[in-house]
Write a structure and sequence with these properties.
Number of helices: 5
CATH class of the largest domain: Mainly Beta
Organism: Salmo trutta
Keywords: Secreted, Signal
InterPro entries: Olfac-like_dom, Olfactomedin-like_domain
CATH topology of the largest domain: Neuraminidase
Largest sheet: 5 strands, antiparallel
Structural class: alpha+beta
Subcellular location: Secreted
CATH architecture of the largest domain: 6 Propeller
Distance between the termini: 60 Å
Strand content: 25-35%
Protein name: Olfactomedin-4-like
Order of helices and strands: EEEHHHHEEEEEHEEEEEEEEEEEEEEEE
């Protein structure tokens, strides 16, 4: 295996370079790419665990069993043990393949168990050699293979502890530095958290790209991420991630904080129940509850992330026909803002124009609706801020624009032009979080966020 490269990209043009202290393992460099992208390159050395050595041990063991077959009557017990250990070695080979499948899998291997198995195997070979009173070179070959495997296991464990885990931690530190940098740049821009004492969005900041999703696969482009928009009092907001690919189950991951999200240390996972429409993933987490679109019957659904209690409600006029421009099945879109929980959709009655519905969280029903003047099929995505709907549309592959707003308080609509950068051309999930006044975007498998600046009240 050739050395492999891990790449982190952050759009933070105000940062020309970042110190890389503490990166003792691997070769790490940082540079600024086109459009002000901060690039972090991590080159890791060849660490392939030699599965072929394990297979060779299996073959040597089989040859040894063949040689002692003539004495099988007196060695039935040893034969049984050898069969068991052959099965263990096959299991070891499978575990080695898991190790080779990705660097983040190293820490899942039980190295001590491997060492115990190898010591037991060495003891069995010694007993077998003494019983046969044999000096066959195959015994020496098998001893050599066992010792080599033991050394490799020790080296791999040492590599895991001293390198990969350090790099994962350093990635988290780097993420935190960038987050603090962004926070420092925008300090004092926004009004008090939770306040609507402003006149709407003035601008959207530069995109901050946290990382690729927890599946480490850009193919999981139908998904979303963010944090609970209504955390329990006294507790930090938990972060979440959910995604879908054509070959996977729809799994939803929860993280206790941002650093655990970055390090992919989830504390809970859920498989979404009952007719989940995979690509209709404009879901959010609000008050420890996941809200999402249900496929059959077409309805809004919710899942309590602690009790796993599930419920759904059909919105009689909501249509499963009208979607956003980036996906065919984003018919219902959930949002949370300073005023509570919302869901948007379109109806045949509105002729495909967006409808805003205020959701009663206790009764889980619609308590009020507003009809807008914007066609949903022309919208890239939409979100709510202080009771105002903001709709976006693509300008080009690198630029999105907030072009429309509807105020549910005044029932006034406006056409705007607030451009902001995209990390990649298409995105699936876009929502505002009133807890930190940021916009969260799931952009072709990547976690992206934006800070928002408001017009003063």
């Amino acid at each position: 295996m050739a050395p492999f490269l891990l790449l982190l990209t952050f759009l933070c043009p105000a940062v020309a370079w970042l110190p890389m202290e503490g990166w003792d393992s691997g070769n790490v460099t940082a540079s600024v790419g086109e459009s002000g992208n901060c690039l972090c390159h991590v080159f890791l050395p060849d660490t392939t665990f030699p599965a072929d050595r394990v297979e060779h041990m299996q073959q040597v063991t089989k040859d040894l069993m063949l040689e002692v077959g003539i004495q099988i009557n007196k060695l039935d017990s040893y034969k049984g043990k050898l069969v068991i250990f052959l099965a263990e070695l096959r299991n070891l080979t499978m575990r080695v393949e898991i190790v080779e499948s990705g660097p983040d899998k190293y820490i899942r291997l039980d190295f001590e168990l491997l060492r115990i198995e190898l010591r037991e195997f060495e003891l069995l070979v010694t007993q077998l050699k003494d019983s046969l009173n044999s000096s066959s070179p195959m015994f020496d070959s098998l001893y050599t293979e066992i010792r080599n495997m033991s050394l490799i296991v020790n080296q791999l464990e040492s590599y895991d502890k001293s390198n990969l885990e350090v790099i994962r931690i350093e990635f988290g530190k780097l993420q935190k530095k960038l987050e603090e940098c962004q926070k420092n740049q925008e300090e004092g821009i926004n009004p008090d958290i939770g306040s609507c004492n402003h006149k709407g969005i003035a601008s959207v900041g530069k995109p901050v790209v946290s990382q690729l999703n927890a599946n480490l696969n850009a193919g999981y482009r139908f998904g979303g991420w963010g944090k609970d928009s209504k955390p329990n009092r006294g507790f930090e907001s938990m972060y979440w991630y959910g995604a879908y690919s054509s070959a996977s189950v729809n799994t939803f991951y929860l993280y206790s904080n941002y650093q655990n999200l970055v390090l992919r240390n989830s504390f809970k996972q859920h498989t979404l129940p009952n007719g989940w429409q995979s690509t209709g993933n404009n879901y959010i987490v609000h008050g420890n509850t996941l809200y999402y679109q249900k496929n059959s019957p077409f309805s809004m659904a919710k899942l309590n992330l602690t009790t796993t209690k599930y419920d759904y409600r059909v919105i009689e006029k909501a249509s499963a026909t009208f979607s956003y421009s980036f996906s065919a099945n984003q018919n219902m879109d959930f949002s949370a803002d300073e005023n509570g929980l919302w869901v948007t959709y379109a109806t045949y009655e509105s002729k495909g124009k967006m409808v805003i519905a205020k959701v009663n969280e206790v009764e889980f029903g619609v308590e009020d609706v507003w009809n807008t003047g914007v066609y949903k099929s022309l919208v890239g995505n939409a979100f709510m801020v202080c009771g105002v709907l903001y709709a976006t549309r693509p300008v080009d592959v690198h630029t999105e624009e907030i072009f429309y707003s509807y105020d549910t308080k005044t029932e006034q609509e406006n056409y705007l032009s607030i451009p902001f950068e995209k990390f990649q051309d298409e995105y699936l999930n876009l929502h505002y979080n009133p807890i930190d006044q940021k916009i969260y975007m799931y952009n072709k498998g990547y976690y992206v966020s934006y800070s928002v600046k408001f017009n003063k009240g």
